[in-house]
Write a structure and sequence with these properties.
Phosphorylase Kinase, domain 1; about 25% helix; about 700 residues; leucine-rich repeat; repeat; 6-stranded mixed β-sheet; alpha/beta; Leucine-rich repeat, LRR (right-handed beta-alpha superhelix); single chain
């Protein structure tokens, strides 16, 4: 532990006093937030190299140690949501020496702090939050506790309209920031994986991001926000029409209302690294807006009329009697069927899983034009994958289980409950599911740039640069690190491969397909945690950890091995197995022969050889035969971040800002044959799952040669 650099034990249910961490001389990052640690903060000074300390959302008491002022590289100190008391020394921020781009954040909200000692002037690039402390009753400290225009109470941002006329606005109209009555468009919205725990420093930044993305003015948006478990940040966004003149009715016209709606439902608001992925929960349409965007029933019942034919002619008595008996039998069976169907439906009504939506079969059938072949974008071991457009215009990917892949209802809903708790910007988000009509379907966000494997193919139209490949590798590693270290309970993916890494419009990587995932081991009765999970071998040839294949013992290092193979694909463009050749063996031979650059994918253009060599060395470490010799996923992320931080700035900026509009569907129509065929190469969730017995028998999936 002495050699550790990063300590992240966030949301691990830790209890007791804080440990003494002064013996870690190279500690750079410490995150013990969202635990149940109690007692005072140890007075012993931490490493002078540390940049981030996050002890928020615990049960800490006592004073804030003075040594925080003597940590020269500290950029963020978060002690919010504890029970700390006494005085805050302004030397914590006054002693900071920051260059033009560096910033310092001090988050002390919701404690019992009573005074500030020293100067209360804030230097440039310093943000201090003290809202929710007794000292905020002092009006001179308004810069630390909010302003007159914006006060924060119970996690909600509200605007003070005390200067507006006292008579108020006739409902549902509300005052705008300019004190005229207008009809707001209310949008329910949620940040699924924000990169912060204190939103105060980002209030105006988010407002600027949202209004810029919607192409409206800054003053047209007001919003409330509420922290939820995750942590996720739910928002009630209120968009107001601009002021035109006194004769205006102060409502959005039809075209502007539909334009704003399509921005949300078509996922046309650009992604932002700070605020992370978001989800659209819905719209609250007030007044005349209900006439412009009529609400639709979530389920559509298709009723078929009964065609009564008049039979002309005489029918023999025996035939007539036979027909009557047949009808009676059918009625009895139909009545029994309806009874069973109603009982099954009633059992489902009581099941509700937070964070995901339960779709009806009819909704998903409508979204895919009755599961048309033109809407199909992939097929794997689980079943077929369709691109669909929901009734509100949201584009989704729908995984439909085939016969033989169906689980029991309890097992299926248990898996949905687990997936609904996973929220990270580098994981594909689960939107909902369907479990009726004998079907089991999962509904995910649609990834417009398809799979990583698509873009490594020789047929790829625009080959990825080295910087883009490194960015994708880092994103995939971060998603897996979340599964290993922050998911509750931790998860081993078990089928990491290039076709399970999807790319959004900015080529940011998101790990997909947890159909084969297994929960990490949990402590036994004596509190001992096994180092592995025993399981039937499943995965994809070429990516399988040799140790896992031989022993059936699945560990976090099994995912590390598979990701190492993906790294080798990124560097060489080769398939894991092709014409009887294994990518790990081929790269090792080239490395030992001193001709490693001869197998680097030439389609990625010029690249910094030193960085390629470091990336290759990391990939080979991940693919070591012995699991103990492989790095952990946290160490993989750290090394990739080090490589990325030393890349030429021109390369990283180009990789960060590149985007693609490919794969976007018309948000107001179901997929047509032309739109679906154009996205066949952008196949989300393609899986080539095989079992261990398939490998033993020599079954290898057909792979197109390079």
């Amino acid at each position: 532990m002495v050699s550790s650099v990063i300590q992240s034990l966030r949301n691990c249910n830790l209890r007791g006093p804080l440990p003494d961490l002064r013996r870690i001389p190279h500690l750079l990052y410490l995150d013990l937030s969202f635990n149940q640690l109690n007692g005072s903060i140890p007075p012993n000074k931490l490493s002078e190299n540390i940049t981030t300390i996050d002890l928020s959302n615990n049960l800490l008491t006592g004073n804030i140690p003075s040594y925080f002022a003597d940590l020269p590289r500290l950029q963020k100190l978060s002690l919010a949501n504890n029970s700390l008391d006494g005085t805050v020394s302004s030397s914590i921020w006054q002693n900071k020496t920051l260059n033009g781009t560096e910033k310092f954040f001090l988050e002390l909200e919701n404690n019992n702090l009573t005074t500030i000692s020293g100067s209360i002037d804030l230097p440039p690039n310093v943000t201090v939050g003290l809202n929710g402390n007794p000292l905020c009753s002092n009006i001179t400290l308004i810069q630390f506790c909010g302003s007159e225009a914006a006060t924060v109470t119970n996690g909600s941002l509200t605007t003070n309209f005390s200067s507006c006329p006292p008579q108020g606005c006739p409902p549902p109209f509300e005052y705008t920031v300019d004190c005229f009555c207008a009809l707001p468009l209310i949008v329910f919205y949620r940040l699924k994986s924000p990169g912060f725990t204190n939103f105060l420093p980002y209030l105006n930044g988010f407002k600027d991001y949202m209004t810029h993305g919607l192409e409206i003015s800054f003053d047209q948006l007001e919003y409330d926000f509420y922290w939820q478990v995750g942590p996720r940040l739910k928002m009630d966004l209120k968009f107001f029409p601009p002021y035109l003149n006194n004769t205006s009715n102060h409502t959005f016209n039809e075209s502007e209302l539909l334009r704003i709606k399509s921005k949300f439902t078509g996922w046309l608001i650009p992604d932002n690294d700070t605020f992370g992925p978001y989800e659209l929960i819905g719209f609250n349409l007030l007044g005349s807006y209900q006439d412009v965007i009529p609400t639709r029933s979530e389920s559509q019942n298709i009723r078929t009329g009964v065609l009564v034919g008049i039979v002309i002619g005489a029918i023999a008595c025996a035939v007539t009697l036979s027909a009557i008996v047949t009808i009676l039998i059918l009625r009895i069976k139909l009545r029994d069927y309806h009874a069973v169907s109603k009982q099954r439906h009633a059992s489902k009504i009581s099941i509700k899983i937070d964070g995901v939506r339960a779709f009806t079969y009819g909704e998903l059938s409508f979204a895919t034009n009755n599961f048309s072949i033109s809407a199909q974008v992939g097929q794997g071991g689980y079943g077929k994958v369709y691109k669909g457009v929901l009734s509100d215009g949201t584009v989704v990917a729908i995984k439909r289980a085939q016969e033989g892949s169906l689980q029991g209802e309890k097992e299926f809903l248990t898996e949905i409950s687990l997936l609904s708790r996973l929220h990270h910007r580098n994981l594909v988000s689960l939107i909902g599911y369907c479990d009726e009509e004998g079907e089991q379907m999962l509904v995910y966000e649609f990834m417009s740039n398809g799979t990583l494997r698509d873009h490594l193919s020789v047929t790829a139209k625009d080959p990825l640069t080295f910087a883009m490949r490194l960015k994708i590798a880092l994103g995939a590693a971060k998603g897996l690190m979340y599964l290993h270290t922050e998911a509750d309970p931790p998860i081993f993916h078990r089928d990491v491969k290039a076709s399970n890494i999807l790319l959004d419009s900015k080529f940011s990587a998101k790990v997909a397909d947890f159909g084969l995932s297994r929960l990490a081991p949990v402590p036994d009765m004596e509190g001992v945690v096994p180092g592995h999970v025993s399981t039937v071998v499943k995965g994809t040839p070429g990516y399988l950890d040799p140790e896992y294949f031989l022993t059936h013992k699945l560990t976090d290092k099994s995912d590390v091995y598979s990701l190492g193979v993906v790294f080798l694909e990124l560097l060489t463009g080769m398939h894991p197995i092709s014409h009887g050749k294994n990518i790990v063996r081929e790269v090792n031979v080239a490395y030992q022969s001193g001709v490693i650059f001869s197998i680097i994918d030439g389609r990625m253009g010029s690249y910094p050889s030193e960085h390629v060599e470091k990336f290759l060395t990391l990939a080979m470490k991940c693919c070591e035969d012995e699991p103990e010799a492989r790095p952990s996923m946290t160490e993989v992320v750290r090394e990739l971040e080090n490589i990325w931080s030393t890349m030429p700035e021109s390369d990283t900026k180009r990789a960060e800002f590149i985007s693609s509009d490919s794969g976007k569907a018309d948000s107001h129509s179901t997929p047509s044959s032309s739109s679906a065929s154009a996205s066949v190469m952008k196949t989300p969730f393609v899986s080539g799952d095989v079992s261990g017995s398939d490998l033993v028998s020599g079954v290898i999936p057909s792979i197109k040669p390079r």
